[in-house]
Amino acid sequence: MKARLVPLVALAAALTLTAVAAAGPDAAKQRVAINIKNPDNGTFVLTPLQVGTLKRDSGTVSVVYKDPTPVMRDGQAVYVYRNTYTLKGKHGNMSIRERSEWVDVSNEKAPGHDYTPGVGIGTWKVAPKYPDIWAAIAPISGNGNPAVLEKLRGVPEIIVHGDADPTVPVTGSRTMVAKLKELGIEHKYIEVPGGLHSDVVGPNLAAIVEFFDAHRKTARSTSQQ
After folding, report:
1. Are the beta carbons of 16 and 9 closer than 8 angstroms?
2. Which residues of the chain have pLDDT under 50?
3. Per-residue CA distances from 100 to 5, 131, 191 (Å)
4. Are 138 and 214 contained in the same domain?
5. How many domains does the chain have?
6. CA of 116: how far to CAs of 3, 105, 111, 161, in Å?
7. Which of 57, 84, 113 represents a domain boundary (last residue)?
8. Per residue, what are the HEC states of 66-80?
9. What are the pLDDT digits (tens) for 119-158?
């Protein structure tokens, strides 16, 4: 039986395409966009999104992959990847550490395939464990226990779900949104008519980024950097 791995992502106040460079106190507060072409011995372009110490740069990129560490959560196997990207530019070098989690899930009953059924439910599981580090979160096509939202009272949320999702029923997000309203937690809910499990991400990515930009942390302690 074939299986497909999909990422278990907790979207917070920055996306993978945006990084904060820790090249000193000033640079640590500067937002930049890093575009990478072929992480395995490819190239990168760094573009500042704010005025600051870091300037536009480009160069080569390499990555060191580590074999995934499998862990069990709620009876489901989760594969944890930890990779390190090294960017060598004209003005200096930078290292980026990536941590991602992957789980086996179904492929929404695509014709001609026989994937192992399963569901990966991530953001509402991860975020309550570290409530102080998020500026905002974006659960997409998810589900969760409404009781955990008590721990996220100060964390704005943008939720996206398709009402035809065959993998995680939309009632999962609707239940969580009802609790968010009850607790008075700031949130934005986008329910996509006819949307399935994965096809709702791309069309709503701009809205997620806009929501994150409007809910930045104003300060960050050195112990969290």
Report:
1. no
2. 1-27, 106-108, 110, 113, 115, 117-120, 219-225
3. 12, 19, 26
4. yes
5. 2
6. 5, 6, 14, 22
7. 113
8. CCCEEEEECCEEEEE
9. 445 788 888 888 888 899 999 988 889 999 999 999 999 9
User: 126 with 214, same domain?
Assistant: yes
Domain of residue 26: give its range. Answer: 1-113
**pTM of the predicted protein model:** 0.54
- Distance set, CA 97 to CA 16, 86, 94, 144, 215 (Å): 11, 9, 10, 28, 24
Alpha-carbon distance of 79 to 66, in angstroms, equals 11
Give me 130's structure tokens. 């570290």
> How far apart, in whole angstroms, are the C-alpha atoms of residue 153 and residue 64?
38
Please, are residues 3 and 21 in contact by the beta-carbon 8 Å criterion?
A: no
Last residue within a domain, chosen from 56, 83, 113: 113
